[in-house]
Amino acid sequence: MPREILNPFKIAQSYFEQAAERLKLDAGMRAILSTPKRTLTVSIPVRMDQGGYRVFIGHRVAHNMARGPAKGGIRFHPDVTLDEVKALASWMTWKCACLDLPFGGGKGGVVVDPHRLSDGERERLTRRYTSEILPLIGPDQDIPAPDVYTDPQIMAWIMDTYSMTKGATTLGVVTGKPLALGGSKGRERATARGVQFVLREACRARKISIKGARVAIQGYGNAGSHLAALLHEEGARIVAASDSGGGVYDPKGLTPAQLLAHKRAGRSLKTFEQGKMITNKQLLELAVDVLVPAALENQITSANAGRIKAKIIAEAANGPTTPMADDILFRRGRTVIPDILANAGGVTVSYFEWVQDFYTFFWEEDEVDRRLEKYMVRAYHSVAEAAARHKCSLRGGAYVVAVDRVAEATRVRGIFP
């Protein structure tokens, strides 16, 4: 049996190659689309509160810009690697193309545990990192956004640093900003909303009613907790939820607001008073209708894919399913709504924010939700049609749609000089 691929960049490349085969792309086009356009690694000296300096390492990658400026988050995490950032940048290329947004793919990361920094140290780290990547970013070049352990405040510092350097307030240089600085209403729960909209379509296709459906959610951060609340409002039964420490299971159903209050009190969901404690691995294999991996990469592998009982797996996280696991699930008749479609609500509302910033004219939340639903539903049906045409999984269909759009833009533009 071949060894399973777990490297995120190699996984991203393998999905691209499958789509390239289906589209019969020539070797030259494959090389252009699979190679990051630019990769920058910088050192970030930061003055610490106790005196002295520490040097952190940061990256910013623009994978492809054929359809527009690069778009993608910045994460602060001790395990950030250049391969991970390259993989995430390529996923952003395909995600933006899958949703037909006028963006390419970018991503950034700093190797740091932000929990070990004071607010002042985080601000100085952010501003110095911004100054190092500043020649590459801009509202028409490369537009950062929040990601793991970054937030609207970090985006505000990036926007201010960029604006002070350029000499003019430039709201559109980042998205995911506070509302006071040109952020969009609806952005906080946009990823969850996007998952909700495509999950509705997948449930209709599988003739599953969301009302009464049993749902398990691995990962109770922003996306997972908001999605639990949204599905609960639609009548779904949230039977299991977990965080990094473990989780809780109750077949009678859990109340999302109570789970969130427990988390906000600083306690792990495994200590929740109701139901029984389970591990993250056990949660994945529960007898449910819908499984939502909303945590880390490589959670569903060839080792456990044969035991997944959920009829629909909606990938709220990036890369939770390995290619071998994806094949197993497809052969077993499971519907996997792939990450580049399922969790694209965040970047779609980031696009809306960017548009609003350009016009300095801002929409109410119901308009944001209405526009988001239109984009997500349209993308789902484009993906489903491509999957049916190529007799492949929804992931295969999503990559066919995305890669075809980027290849066409590349062909039409040509290569300069």
UniProtKB/TrEMBL annotation:
Protein's name in the database: Glutamate dehydrogenase
- Tell me the domain of life: Bacteria
The answer to whether UniProt assigns keyword Chaperone to this entry is no
According to its UniProt entry, this protein's organism is Eiseniibacteriota bacterium
Important for catalysis (site feature) positions: 147
Query: What biological-process GO terms show up in the record?
Result: L-glutamate catabolic process
Q: Which UniProt keywords apply?
A: NAD, Nucleotide-binding, Oxidoreductase
Annotated catalytic residues: 107
